[in-house]
Amino acid sequence: MTRGSQIHSFGRFLYTQNPFYLISCFLILYGLQTATVSAGDLISRSLSLSGGIAAYTLLMAVTCVAVIRICQVWQDARSIFLVVIISLVALSTSLDELAITQWNSATQILCVGFLFAVLISESVIRATRIRFPFAYRGSYYSLLLIFFASPIVLGYAVVHRHDELANWGAPLYSVLIAAGMLLLAPAMRKGRRRVRHNGTPWHWPYYPLSAFVILVVLAAIRTHAIWMSFGFRGSSVRFEPFLLLPIAFAILVLLAEIDAKRVLPRFAWGTMAAAPLMLFCGLSHHGKTYLPIQSDLQFVFGSASTVTLLALVLFYLYLAVRRVTYVEYGLIGSIVTMGVFAELPQTVYAAGVQNWMIVALGAIICSAVCLRVWRSDVGWFAVVVLSTLTIVMAGNAYDHTLAGLILAAVVAVMSMMLIGAVFESEFAMLLRHLAAGIIVIMVGSMVAWYLSGRADRRVLLGLITLSIVAVIYLQIVRRIGWLYIAAAPAFGLCLLLAWDGHQAGIFRKSNVPLQSGLTCFAIGLAITTMKTGVHRKLLRSTIQANALPRYKPGL
Questions:
Q1: Is residue 478 part of a domain?
Q2: DSSP state of 548
Q3: What is the tens place of the pLDDT at every residue in 119-157?
Q4: CA 320, 322, 326: angle at the middle one, nearest 5?
Q5: Together in a domain, 433 and 473
Q6: Given 83, 99, 221, 252, which is the most exposed site by the fewest CB atoms within 10 A?
């Protein structure tokens, strides 16, 4: 692209989009703030700043009406609409200092300011003959009310030393903003049908969601300012992402509502995939916050990361209620993640709830999903993983770590063998091989544990059980490899019995060379039969005699 064409394209962008109204807004707001810094006492500065913003807002509102009714330049009018909204929000944030020092005066100005915001908004809507449905209008005025009412309520808390309300001010403000946003949910479900004939050339979602995007961005910025103005108590100034959690939750819900009931809900699936990003709101400072409510938050919820995990679970539950397909996987994953990583508060621990119970809940939900989709071998394996994790965590919680590990290993092996017997997929075959390998490792571990002198004779019973289970499984899956797996615990049992006999002195008076020779003969004979395949022939003849199907090779 040549330099001339680049200049032409840039000029075309300036002409069509006309960003100078937005640039003018930010420059004028900054200029008004700078000009009123030295304008006498605090009440004079506050009146000058709020009055200047109100005058500029009125100017832009009149300009907006003229641009639409006289000039019919709708592209520029959209920018002017956004400037009016930004100015109204700036008007609500210009009196924080006055709300702390002279609360009565700030309250009067803010109340008048809210009435002014409603009057300006309604005047522009009616004068331009734009249809602004109540489904959007209710959320719009609710957000404006929160902007103007927050300094009044929190200023009162600071003036009258309601420190708990002042400290919780920023989180409560964020929650209220999220609640105001969620009033858009019915409108988001109807989508463009709700504003199809709106009296403008603008199309959904640019109209009217662009206005709400501006409000949400300003509200997110305002959360930090609320904390600094009304909840700050001399601690270091740091950005606190935890305050953005309710707003992020509301955004995800609204995006999911766009197509939650469709057969292919792409927006809902996208929000389901993006929802774990909410966890970043609770990962700062090792799951804690820099807010003055940290101690209360830890007492009620455990930590900020616990709150974010709970929000993630609630979001997936909401999608489940809306019957979004595949949400059960996100729900199970979020519940298990909460059970593994969440720091539960002491009040919950006192009630008997522990982390392993949350993981167990995830395993139960996963089992219910697998019962609905019966032929899912991967799903049943997920149930196995969650069940073994639950057993390990429960054993660790009740100071029976070793018993929990042993029981988890037994459950895992038996479950994988069961899945391998029921299904004929490659994954089921992999689980059979994995179960066989674990059995061999368990046999070696049990033998070593017994020889070390730290185990009792229950190990012998375990080896017998493993051998019997492998033989029974051989008859179920008809795989010759399980004959060798059954031989492993049998060989370990013989080894331990011989060790016990040697330790007891039974073999000390015997002819050791003779016994050793017979043992070597037995080993050599076993190797020879393996080479010649005699055991296979004997097994095949037994099968034919009993009219049973032929055993398959491998595991």
A1: yes
A2: P
A3: 999 999 888 888 888 889 999 999 999 999 999 999 998
A4: 45
A5: yes
A6: 221
